[in-house]
Every structure is written in C-alpha cells, then in structure tokens.
UniProtKB/TrEMBL annotation:
Superkingdom of origin: Bacteria
Residue ranges annotated for the Peptidase M1 alanyl aminopeptidase Ig-like fold domain, each copy included: 450-552
Taxonomy of the source species: Bacteria, Pseudomonadati, Pseudomonadota, Alphaproteobacteria, Caulobacterales
Entry EC no(s): 3.4.11.2
Function: Aminopeptidase N is involved in the degradation of intracellular peptides generated by protein breakdown during normal growth as well as in response to nutrient starvation.
Listed cofactors: Zn(2+)
Protein name: Aminopeptidase N
A Gene Ontology BP annotation from the UniProt entry: proteolysis
Gene that specifies this protein: pepN_2
Domain Peptidase M1 membrane alanine aminopeptidase: 231-442
Keywords attached to this entry: Aminopeptidase, Hydrolase, Metal-binding, Metalloprotease, Protease, Zinc
Length: 884
C-alpha cells in the first residue's frame, strides 16, 4: 500500500490559543472566479504563561495572499511564513491590528467547504474547517470573535446579501454594484460564520419570544419554490416555542434567516442567525415530498434551531467534544418530534435508525468512541456514533435522573457555560451539581467504543413463587480498544402473567412492589429476586429501549408471542414482533442454504394478524409492525453471511406470509382512501404508512393481481407519498409496469431535482431486473451529475445500503460500481467520497470470498496517490479489517 502519512490530531495535545480575537471585520468583494476577502483583526495576547513568547499562527488553505499589514505597516515576505496550511508571524506585539487581503475562487470550489457557488449563488459552509478556505484566521471552535461583515456584489445578479446577525447598513455604487453590512453581536467561532448572496424567492413571518422580542424570520429559496417553504416556516415557529416551553431557551437576535441551497454536503448548518439548508431538508409540498420528507424537515429545522443554544451560545472547546453539541441537539430534536407526533412511533423509528447505522459502525472497522481520542479528518467524524449514540447517552442520563432533574441540569449547563467553549466534563459537572446524582461511570459511555451487550437470564421458582433475573453486561473490543468495564445501564422492566395482564411483583426482602421497574445497573453483573409470582411471569425488558445495548435473553417463543400481543410498552411490542421475525428469517436462510424448504413459524403470521386486526387504533404503529427486518439488519445478526441467501429467505418468508394474510391485508388496504384531502400531520401520515406497508407485503406474493394493485395505486396517487409507495411495490416486479411508471414519473418531474433524486434512489434500490446494469444506466443518465451530493447519494448510497444483495454480489460487480463512483467523486469532493466509502464497512460482515473481492477493489483506490486524505482515512481502516 502506498501509505501517505496520515497525521493524527489528538485530544491530549489540546493547547489553548494564546491570543484573543477581539474583533473581526471582513469585506467580501464577490466575484465568482476571483473574490477578494479583506480581513481586519484586532488581536491581543492572552495574559497566560503559554502566550508569553508565542508567535501568531493563523489557519489558511488555498488562499492567494495579496497583501498583509501589521499595525498599518506592510509586511515583507521575510516577516512571515506561509505554508500549505497557514500563516505564521514569529514576532508580534501584545496588542495589534492585522489586515490581510486574499483572493479565492468560489466557482472552482467543488468540495463545497468554504465559500462556493450553488446554482449561480454564493454560499458558505464553514463547519468544521471551511473558514480557513476563506481567510486567514485561527479556525478552531474555542476562538471566538465579534464579526462585522460587509458584502459587495452586482445588484442585478445578487440582490440578496446575507450574513450572521443583524443588517446594519446598505448602499449602492454607481457601477451597478451594491453592498450590505451585517453585525453579529454574539461572539462566535469561525465555524458558525455564514454568507449568502444571490437571487431568491423569500417568505417572511415573525415570532414573538416569551420575553417579548420580535424576531423577523425569512426563508430564502429557489425562484418559484416559495410555496414549498411554508411547512419549514411552521416547523421553525413550533421549534422556537417548544424550546421556550421545555428547555426554557429563547432566541437572542432580531433576525432569523434560513437559506436553502441545492448543493450541500450534509443536511443543514446552524450558522448563527443564518441557517443554511440542503433544499432536500427544507422544501416540501404534497405533490413533491413524502411523509418521510416532511418528518425529516421538521426534525432538521428544529435541530438547527436548537443548536442556537446547544452549539452556538454554548459551543465546543475542540472537535473531540463534537457530541457535546450534536448528541445533545439530536436528543432535543428527537424529543421535539416525539411531542409533535407520536412518542411511541418516534422512539421505534429512532431505534431502527440507530441499529441500522450506529450499531454496525460501532461493531466494525470504523468503530470509535463518542468522544474519540484522535482523528485524521474531522469531516469523517460527523458520524452516527457522535450524533445518534451521543443522543442515546443523553437519554440514558435523563432516564437515570428523571425528566425534571434532567431539565434543571440542562438549565444549569446553559447558564454556567453561556458564551463559552465547553467540554463534555462541563456538561456532566452541571448534571451532577443540579441532580445530586454522582452518575458513576457515565464517562465510559463517551470513552468506550462498541455496543454493550446486556444478557438477561430469568428463572422461575414455582414453589417459592419467586423470579430471579441475572443481568450481566459486557462491551466488546473494538479497533485499538480492549478490556472495557461496565457502563451505567438503566434497565426498564415489567412482568406479565400468562393471560397477558401486568403482574405486580415485589423486590425480595423489601416492601417495594410495582408494575414498572427501573433497575439502575452499575456493575458487570446484577442478581435480582422478585417475590409474589403466583404464576410464571414473562419479563418485558428494556422498555422504551431504555439503553442502547444489544439484548440477549432466555425468553421463549411463547414469551415473545405474549409480549408481541399484550405488552403495554409499544417499543417492546414492536421489538418482540421483530424478534419473532428475525428468528423466522434466519431460520429460513439456514434452510435455503441447505437446500431445504423453510418453515415459517405460525407465531409470526399470528403476530402480524394481531397487528392488522388492531391497525385502526394506531395505523403508524401497525405499519411498523408489518415491516420485517431487512437484509442489512439480518447481515448484522449472521456473521460471514451471503446477502443473496438472506434476500432469498426474506422473499420466501414474505411470500408465505402474504398467502396466510392476504385477506387481512386486502381488507386493511381497502380502508385507505387515496382521494382524501392531504394533511402532512402524523395521523394522516400514519394511514398512508399503513397502506404502504400492506401494499409492500401484498406485492411479495408476486401475483399479477398485486402488480395491478400497485399500478392502480400509482395512477390513483394524489400525493408523493402514495406515489412512492406504489413505485416501491412496482419495483418488486420490475418489467414493463415499473418502467412505464418510472417514465411517466420522470417526464412529470424532470425539472424538480429533489423528486428526480427519488427517481434515482428507487431504481438504485430495486432488487428486480439486473441491478448492476441499472446502476450503469443511471450513472450515464443525462440527469446524473457528480457535482450535486444529493444526486450522488441517491445513486451510490441508495445502492450500497438499500440493495445489499446487489452491492455484495458474489462476483464483486457491486463493489466495483461503488468504487468507480468514489474514484470519480473523490477529486471533486473528498468529504462526499469518504462518506460513500463508509458503505464498504458492511463488507466486514460478509463471507470471505466477497471480502477478498472488496479488499482488492479498495486496494486499487488506495493505490492512487491523489486519493483525498478523507477517503484514504476511511478506506484504509475498512480495508485493514477485511480478509484479503
Ligand atoms: Zn447538529
């Protein structure tokens, strides 16, 4: 392997910056290929020992330095040193002014980090280290400054000029150019800087905070798209009042602007007072957006808004603390969505997402702690572990101390750290102080990688009417980490009798007797004894998924069937149904692998029948029950698997189920009225989800009747959700019906990029036909472009994660599809290529023949000298874990 040195940044090397950036004034003379950025900085040496002798070091990458002056005197080349990553002035006074003038080329910026152009407009993305592509500055989150920004550009092409904070002045030149000055009163780190210039449609609204501040809200979108911004506006206002009501946090500027752009590396960005969004997470109407889109928009609008406190007012000392803002903010947006919609359904969806993305990450070559101790490229650490596992740790904390104590801890954290760059210790200190709970061992959740396993073995003693439960936990070794100890686990439990009624037991030797138990586990093992069990209890473990662990139990099939039917906790009901399904699917895979006809246990169809019978009560929940574990989930349960065997097993089991349940499915499907007026709310979305789940299962019959039903659903669809559900059904058949629907879809939505992403995605994920040929056809479709991250993901990520049997095809053709795409994207956008690269992580779980093929394909990429550091970091870690 051609090893390029991968320079690690280490948490233990943290040093405070020796200077204070008291004031930052920037002037942007915007021109697409040559923008001039003039920066005037007031800098003071800190009165600390480390600062006494220090020279000034500023970050700066790909900047053409035009001039540099210190206290009004032009510096000569010998007075400073320029290198690949920045500028050093060895000797500076204790207090001085520094002025630099640089030129940058936004039109050539395909990495979409720093100042770049999207659809002819200027925009920025500075987190994590984009600001150094704009001007010389100490580009690290613990250095904060007051920013004053002046933007100049031609008025005709760029009528809107935005930056953080409040607009304080505007003006015109006589050559057709105009300018605007923005001032942000809140000191901030450079990663929260933003600038936008262009021609937009906008919608306006306002919000009055509980202390009476009038906030003007503007959402800026593509010309002609204003009508699709109203849902985001509504979600924003609901977020603003939710954060006041629940966390007591208010907005702190007179203006809040959101801009939607088509080309964006992530979902959205919380720049102070000027959030920038991927338009996929902002624009929605019934004709073009699905319920999942609406849900994601609501969550991400809330997420970015909530960052105003968890991230901006209190920011991170260094990027090792990233989860301090991201984990907490994900937790906050999850809670918001739970309050806006169904708490039970939201929890199940979050657990599904955690298991689909974070669990595999945590058990594979890319496993890392929620607070890593080193990294090569920080962009690669915007991971599911930092975000979703980080949020689960916050939830564990809340469960341990209780909701009210938790909220007072959060309050203390915000108040004590307001205006500061904080650490995870600061967060835990506030929680401990406010709650009086020592939270023993909680740090290990942040420092130990790997998903803990919780084993729960119950034993019933009929004579003594006694139930004993032995709990034991362990966390597996992960790359570079072994010898782990227990983490604090709140284990929520309840007991049910043979008739499904809740049982009240009492903890042996005490008077404590309850329906619901929250057992705080703070050791490797714990023995529990419950008395008063006249009948054999069935134990419901980990209610509400009270901790992010893998659970192993000695529950019998009968226990699972009982819980699936009777548990009062919706999560455990769903989980028990899933457990029955997992067992059936893995059993079928085993049988097929041995050339035998699989048997589908009656428990499974009975559980689904129960779900259908009860569907009207909570359609969204029933829809979740009806969805069987997918191939990727099964791959996690079966080491060294053959994904096509798992896919065959899934097809087989679903085929049997639909035979048994066809009438029930038909009846449930028939309750749906496609002509009903559209509302994006959770209740209406639940009905659509149920219809889709029924249709999905009906299509597993592979009968012409089902194909016709999917086709009719497609033509009757009055909204994008139903249209996609129908296309999904048709994709199970492939052939002319699917193709005709796709063609109609394309001609109707050809000029809507977000809808065309769906057209790419559904085909990339289709298991019918020849998925490798489909991939090639989509890649050469005129609508495909490497320059738009959404489009690249709609093909590459959808294929690799949504079509596992094709991606992991035995001859390696799927691996080559993705590797070619990564190779082509990498030169344009290394961060995007690296993210696609993470899809190869699943190769560690397939049988050795496939692993070898994947390893060879990765080696070819790694042999390229020009491969970006981002992609190299990801692929080399994955490859090191493969057999090859
Ligand atoms: Zn975030």
């Amino acid at each position: 392997m051609r090893t390029q040195e991968q320079i690690q940044v280490r948490l233990q090397d943290y040093q405070p910056y020796p200077f204070v950036m008291s004031h930052t004034s920037l002037v942007f003379d915007l021109q697409p290929t040559r923008t001039i950025v003039t920066s005037r900085l007031l800098i003071e040496r800190k009165p600390i020992v480390e600062a006494r002798q220090a020279g000034l070091r500023l970050d700066g990458v790909d900047l053409e330095l035009i001039s540099i002056e210190l206290d009004g005197v032009t510096l000569k080349p010998g007075d400073y040193q320029l290198d690949e990553t920045g500028l050093t002035i060895a000797s500076v006074p204790d207090s001085f002014k520094l002025e630099t003038k640089v030129a940058i080329n936004p039109a050539a910026n395909t990495a979409l980090s720093g100042l770049y152009m999207s659809a002819g407009r200027f925009c920025t993305q500075c987190e994590a280290e984009g600001f150094r592509h704009i001007t010389f500055w100490p580009d690290r989150p613990d250095v904060m400054s007051r920013f004053h920004v002046r933007i100049e550009a031609p008025r005709a092409t760029f009528p809107t000029l935005l930056s953080n904070g409040n607009q304080v002045a505007i003006g015109e030149y006589d050559d057709g150019r105009h300018w605007a000055a923005w001032d942000d009163p809140h000191p901030k780190p450079s990663y929260l800087f933003a600038l936008v210039a262009g021609d937009f449609d906008r919608i306006d609204d306002h919000f009055v905070t509980r202390s009476g501040r009038q906030v003007e809200i503007g959402i800026f979108v593509d010309k002609g798209a204003a009508s699709r911004a109203h849902y985001a506006m509504d979600a924003l206002k609901r977020s603003m009042s939710w954060d006041e009501q629940v966390f007591g946090r208010e907005y702190d500027l007179d203006v809040f602007n959101i801009v939607a752009v088509a080309d964006f590396n992530f979902g959205a960005m919380e720049n102070k007072g000027l959030n920038i969004f991927n338009s996929a997470l902002l624009l929605a109407d019934e004709e073009t957006a699905t319920d999942a889109d609406y849900e994601a928009i609501e969550a991400v609008v809330a997420h970015e808004y909530f960052h105003n406190w968890s991230g901006n007012r209190v920011t991170c000392r260094d990027w090792f603390q990233l989860s301090l803002k991201e984990g907490l903010t994900v937790f906050r947006d999850q809670e918001f969505s739970a309050d806006q919609r169904s708490r039970a359904v939201k929890r199940i969806k979050d657990v599904k997402a955690l298991r689909a993305r974070q669990f595999p990450e945590d058990s594979g070559p890319l496993a890392h702690p929620v607070r890593p101790s080193s990294y090569v490229k920080i962009d690669n650490f915007y991971s599911s572990t930092i975000y979703e596992k980080g949020a689960e740790i916050i939830r564990v904390l809340q469960t341990m101390v209780g909701r009210d104590a938790f909220l007072s801890g959060a309050d203390l954290y915000f108040d004590d750290n307001d205006g500061r760059a904080a650490t995870i210790e600061d967060w835990l200190a506030a929680m401990r102080t406010a709650t009086g709970n020592p939270l023993h061992g909680i740090e290990r959740w942040y420092d130990q990688a790997g998903t803990p396993t919780l084993e729960a073995i119950s034993q019933y003693d009929e004579v003594r009417q006694r139930l004993t439960i032995s709990l034991s936990q362990s966390t597996p070794d992960t790359p570079g980490q072994s010898g782990k100890t227990w983490v604090p686990l709140p284990v929520a439990m309840a007991f049910f009798g043979p008739d499904g009624a809740p049982l009240r037991l009492n903890l042996a030797g005490t008077e404590v007797r309850a329906d619901d138990w929250l057992i705080p586990m703070a050791s490797d093992r714990l023995e529990l004894t419950f008395d008063g069990a006249a009948e054999k209890p069935t134990v419901s473990y980990l209610r509400g998924f009270s901790a992010p662990v893998r659970l192993i139990t000695n529950q019998t099939d009968a226990d699972l069937a009982l819980l699936a039917a009777c548990d009062t906790d919706p999560f455990v009901r769903w989980e028990s149904t899933q457990a029955i399904a997992r067992k059936a699917l893995l059993g079928a895979a085993e049988a097929l692998a041995h050339g035998q006809e699989p048997e589908v246990p009656a428990d499974l169809s009975r559980a689904l029948q129960g779900a259908l019978a009860d569907a009207a009560r909570d359609p969204a929940f029933a829809a979740l029950l009806l969805r069987l574990p997918d191939v990727s989930e099964l791959m996690q349960l079966k080491p060294l698997s053959d994904p096509s065997n798992l896919q065959a097993a899934r097809l087989f089991v679903r085929g049997v189920l639909v035979e048994q349940l066809e009438q029930n499915l038909d009846a449930c499907f028939a309750t749906y009225d496609p002509a009903q007026a559209f509302s994006p709310n959770a209740e209406a979305a639940g009905k659509r989800a149920l219809m889709a789940a029924c249709l999905d299962l009906l299509c597993a019959s592979q009968t012409d009747r089902a194909a016709l039903r999917a086709e009719n659903t497609f033509f009757a669809a009055r909204n994008m959700t139903d249209m996609m559900s129908a296309l999904d059904g048709l994709s199970q058949f492939g052939g002319l019906r699917f193709q005709t629907a796709l063609d109609g879809f394309k001609s109707r939505f050809a000029d809507n990029a977000l809808v065309m992403d769906k057209w790419f995605r559904i085909q990339a994920m289709a298991i019918s036909g020849d998925p490798i040929a489909t991939f090639a056809r989509l890649r050469s479709d005129p609508a495909f472009t490497l320059l738009n991250p959404n489009r690249v993901r709609a093909l590459g990520a959808a294929f690799a994660s949504g079509n596992p049997a094709a991606f992991h095809r035995a001859d390696g053709a799927g691996y080559r599809c993705l590797a070619d795409l990564i190779g082509d994207v990498d030169g344009l956008n290394g961060a995007l290529a690296a993210r696609l690269g993470t899809m190869f992580e699943s190769c560690a779980r397939v049988e050795l023949g496939r692993q070898k093929l994947a390893s060879a394909v990765l080696q070819e990429l790694l042999n390229r000298n020009s491969l970006s550091a981002n992609t190299r970091e990801i692929l080399s870690k994955i490859q090191a874990g493969l057999m090859g």
